[in-house]
Amino acid sequence: MDVKKVTEHIVAWLKEYAVNAGVNGFVVGVSGGIDSAVTAALCARTGLNTLCVALPIHQAESQVDRAQEHMEHLKALYPHVQSTTVDVSTTFEAFKTTVPQGANVSTLQLTLANTRARLRMTTLYYLAGLEGLLVAGTGNKVEDFGVGFYTKYGDGGVDVSPIADLLKSEVFALAAYLEVPLSIQNAAPTDGLFGDSRTDEEQLGASYDELEWAMKMYDAKKETTHFTGRQLEVFQIYTKLHRSNQHKMRPIPVCEISEKLKS
Fold it and tell me: Which residues contact 257 (CB under 8 A, 6 or more apart)?
């Protein structure tokens, strides 16, 4: 992949979209992870206003520190980049006191993790509304179209998706070209939604390199009979997640009513 040309293409695409939409620029939720770091850097390169927002909810200090480091890094490079931190922990705790908790612990944990993502989305759109900005998505191709590893109407609730056609390995390649801080490039990917140190790989059961391989095999119409051992295990993980999360990847089903029924 020609990282220079890919970077220039994405930056031009972002700028053209924003100009045609008549907005002032972009807002990006910065988590301290590689995807949001690359997205923020790409938005900054458009020359349009770019607001980077850290949204901790009982976040690990290391994640908050990486987010702050990258925001300061971008502000030093681009005068049109601004940053802010909105700690949503109090809002999250208040929400928990107003809703039933449920008896199933694992279901409750997952539901609350998704709630964190949706509170962050709400905050980003609030700030976008104030400043006339577009919310830039941070999902990559494996997450968005492979295994559906994101929250519907959470981090999946965006206006534009600049890196959604890039595999995770390609995102890392852009990160190196864009000189994203090494602390972010070297950090284990995590969504940070559970308030602990669990990584994406621990949640998914496979690394991004393995999932990229499985995605290519699945798209090539390979069957489970082609694989054994760890390859078979990873292919089955990918296939299960890809199929079960189609509701995230496909347009919302619309019940169409014929004119005959309406008349």
Answer: none
Tell me the pLDDT tens digit for each residue of 48-102. Answer: 999 999 999 998 888 899 999 999 999 999 999 999 999 999 999 999 999 998 7
Confidence at residue 105, expressed as pLDDT on a 0 to 100 scale: 87
Rounded to 5 degrees, what are φ and ψ at 116? -55, -50
195 pLDDT more than 80: no
Q: How many domains does one find in the chain? A: 1
Taken as a whole, the chain contains a residue count of 263
Determine, yes or no, domain membership for 26.
yes
In a domain, 33, yes or no: yes
3-state secondary structure of 135: strand
Q: Residue 52's beta-bridge partner residues? A: 28, 83
Phi, psi torsion values for 16, nearest 5 degrees: -60, -45
What does the pLDDT average to over 176-197?
89
Which CATH number is 11's domain given? Answer: 3.40.50.620
E strands in the chain: 25-29, 49-54, 81-85, 133-135
What type of residue is 190? Answer: T
Threshold 0.90, pTM exceeds: yes
- At 195 the three-state DSSP class reads coil
User: Looking at the domain assignment, is residue 250 inside a domain?
Assistant: no
The rounded mean pLDDT for the chain is 95
Domain assignment present for residue 119? The answer is: yes
